[in-house]
Amino acid sequence: MGVSGHIVVAGAGITGAATALALTEAGFAVTLLDRAAAGSAVSGASLACLGTHMSSEIELPQLIWATRRWAEWDRRFAGAFHYRRCGQIRFIEHEADIPVAEHWIALERAAGLTPELLTRERLRRVEPALTGPLVAASWSPTDALVNPFLAVRCLISAAVAAGARFRSHCPVEAIDVAGGRVTGVVTPGGRIAADAVVVTGGPWTAELVAPLGVALPILPRKAQCLATIRQPVTIRGVVGGCKSDHGGVDAGYTQIQQSEAGQILFNTVLAGGLAEAGAQGHVPEVDRRFVLDSIDTLTRLFPALRAVELLRSWVRYEAVTPDDRFIVGAVGPAGLLVAAGDNGTGFCRAPVIGEVIAAALSGRPCAIDSAPYDPGRFPAAGAT
Q: Taking a C-beta distance cutoff of 8 angstroms, is the pair 94, 131 a contact?
């Protein structure tokens, strides 16, 4: 594409933060805007796992690149966002699912990673409190966690230090176009001229670009979580379900981990859960069924936690695409780009998204293959 000048990035979650940093470091003048506070939507509600294991076969090279970049950022920013390489377990409840785990392990090992299959006995040594009725587990020792709030703020601070401007509580109300190309954005505080606009607004992205004739197949989905009161160190890493026809991430999603403060954070999301467009503007209560399913999963896997008290719950909306992959790149009029549709995976992929956008606007080759995120796979979303 090759654009020079001023870029507005609309949305200061983890995707917008990483994009603003990548663009600033590529030499652009950047203004990052958010409708509320940095990371106040789904990024702040995230459990922020950075993992390659059992996530996406198509995106495995991109995931490896992203996790390495996160490790580089941890060194660069001297631990500012509390990066923890704690590893990830994917529990297996059915013998029939062991070949599924073996397939993923072989795939990832061929890419240079080091996952392995654990027997019940070895599983107890890796995650001693995980004593539920499991037949085996897969183990990815290099997966990591970060503090979501600190990570968003760290990347924004780095972008600002490099010359970017950041304005919170400054929503983009409309995107101006003249002569077939973007010329700026309209905010409550006035118009901001721009040579390009990158919309990183999660579930708000589709409605913002719709007036420009761009139809993005993005819907909001509840991202819910529960937390217990503080506990002694009980869970060492991230615990999730193996891909399975009987449960796990194919029929929903489970993630369990322990925060640095000692709270057990957990969720089990059953299949479905998509909401109508526009639902993201209203923060509802956590679903009763979600609470019951999550408690059932936690106590089945970790029987010692049966008596633990719940402390809090929260819900935000994530942006979901039909194929569970980001839409990243040019759409609609010249100078308009989007980076949205995280499907709950935005934290891990954020460095990749920033690189793809920076390469597109700089007109240089991208360090990684951006094909999995091409807007053109949804014809109504493509550039005109």
A: no
